[in-house]
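Q: what does this look like with nicotinamide-adenine-dinucleotide bound?
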Amino acid sequence: MTEPIWVNMPAKAYPIFVGYDLLAQPNLFQSHLHKAVCVVSHPEIAASYFPLLEQTLQKAGARKITSLLLPAGDAHKTLAFAEKIWSFLSNLHYHRDTTLIALGGGMIGDLVGYSGACYMRGLDVIQCPTSLLAQVDAAIGGKTAVNLQNSKNLIGLFHQPRMVLSDLNTLQTLPNREFIAGLAELIKYGVILDAALFEWLETHIVEILARKPQALERAVVWASQIKADIVAKDEKDQNLRAVLNFGHTIAHAIESIYHYEKYLHGEAVAMGMIIAMQLSLALGLISANLLDRLIALLTKAGLPIFLPDGITLEAILAKIQLDKKHSQGQIRWVLVEALGQAQLRENVPLPMIYDVLKASGASM
Ligand SMILES: NC(=O)c1ccc[n+]([C@@H]2O[C@H](COP(=O)([O-])OP(=O)(O)OC[C@H]3O[C@@H](n4cnc5c(N)ncnc54)[C@H](O)[C@@H]3O)[C@@H](O)[C@H]2O)c1
Ligand SMILES: [Zn+2]
């Protein structure tokens, strides 16, 4: 049997399984499953994977299995769609002894996690992430949310899943652009938390891009272990988890300026990591060599490294002032002090931020 990675939280430790053909293994589900199960997914993902999952759930002992298919896209990660899930569950008389399964990317994971946390004050949720981003990041850690109008993830709560099952077979149908965007978060872990991961990515990026089974498995296992460890130490995102926002200050600004349409999250994170690294260099924390290595790795991965053409300093600064992660008017930056080591900093001089943004392509 595949050995799990554990998220070791007091009283609610849960396993993460990473590997191939996991959706076909009833034994992985057995001890985490109620007899009543509802799987929430998107039509195109369900077409590929729900029939197999349904069979497996039957073999694992589930007796009432339904699926609810919702449209893809973050525009649907809303209270209205949470309500659709609640109505579906209620109309079919699902009670508290129900397992809700999220089969999809981070959007479905967040929406199902949130809906499951609220329905009858909390159902058991199993995350079956099918995008690289969700496997290495979103599905682990119990952060659930929906968007409110233009505010991303404004309404949410912490609700840890009973299990995360990352079947790497599902990545075979993931569109290439989505796959590459997911790589940005993996590279991020290397930069801020694990020099060995960064070095390994430098030497294996071609295999990962080709989705070679062994390399892909190693990458997802490694990243899941990192996320599991950090979540276990800081469940409610009070201190340690803050470093995971490396590259995100600028990323959130870029995503928002382009109305979450032009850039995928990972693409914006890539640009944001370069800015944060340039600030780290300007503050004398790192050498230029480290910045060059990050640029080289992101470029090989096919991720953007320059700010979008035509983006203005004013627009970026207006957005970062709004970002919820700054405290008392100060922008909180996650900076790098050595490969695999990050620090939080609030007093980065504004002229320095201007210079770095201008040098990266922002116009006045
Ligand atoms: N909870 C957290 O800690 C956390 C962390 C990071 C991101 N997020 C959230 O995750 C979401 C982004 O996740 P995402 O990048 O997975 O996006 P997503 O869920 O929107 O999926 C991206 C696209 O890929 C498709 N897709 C997913 N898996 C597929 C597969 N195996 N085959 C074919 N198509 C597939 C989806 O249908 C969708 O069109 C955002 O809502 C973000 O806020 C949450
Ligand atoms: Zn992110």
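The chain has 13 helices and eleven strands. The chain has a mean pLDDT of 95.
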